[in-house]
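Changelog-linked ticket: ribulose-5-phosphate example.
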Amino acid sequence: MNAKQLVGEKAVDYIKDGMVVGLGTGSTVYWTIQKLGQLVKEGLSIKGIPTSVRTEELAKELGIPLTDFASVDRIDVTIDGADEIDSELNLIKGGGGALLREKIVAAASAQLIIVADESKLVKQLGQFPLPVEVIPFGWENTMKKIAEFGCQPRLRLVDDKPDITDNGNYILDCKFDKITKPEQLNKELNTIPGVVENGLFPNIANMFLIGKKDGKVNVITNMR
Ligand SMILES: O=C(CO)[C@H](O)[C@H](O)COP(=O)(O)O
């Protein structure tokens, strides 16, 4: 079993009957959702809130009941992946383009559990280009403003056309040398007109399940 599958499946240990569960996006949480589908068939009663259309489709295929913000007043736990995790437990997310809904769901969750293989652990964020979701109108100008923060932004393309998010926006992948103050950068990027959200998640996850090559799972609890 690979490390993503290992931690993805392990995450269901934290999901109990009756919970409202935020369902993240990506190839690690894919395994969580598969396992949840199996458990639901066996009688587990949960309601999911998906963070992307992709996840919504997968959950529906597997028969996982879904809900929405209008119908619930809490999310008990969200399971999601990450692109980078630094030693202070800050994250870069959005490699799969779902950062906006992921951040909304994470912010509404009592618990955020991150599942990742050990390749995602870094000393300092910034190797992975930071995804920033921007409004299509005037994106070229928004990109210039973002570049003033000392990065090289690039419009994310699919088949030579802008990749459109589930929210109808574009993604700029912004390569920094290193990100020294993630919390500050998170706030400042979001003040630029045209920026909808960025992929920095500064120290908001409660727990990390890290899959290692030797088949073990490292559990890190955030004591913040
Ligand atoms: O933020 C994300 C999607 O927007 C994913 O959680 C992140 O890209 C990690 O993905 P994977 O588990 O496939 O490595």
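Closing comment: Example verified and attached. The two ends are 32 Å apart (CA to CA). The mean pLDDT is 97.
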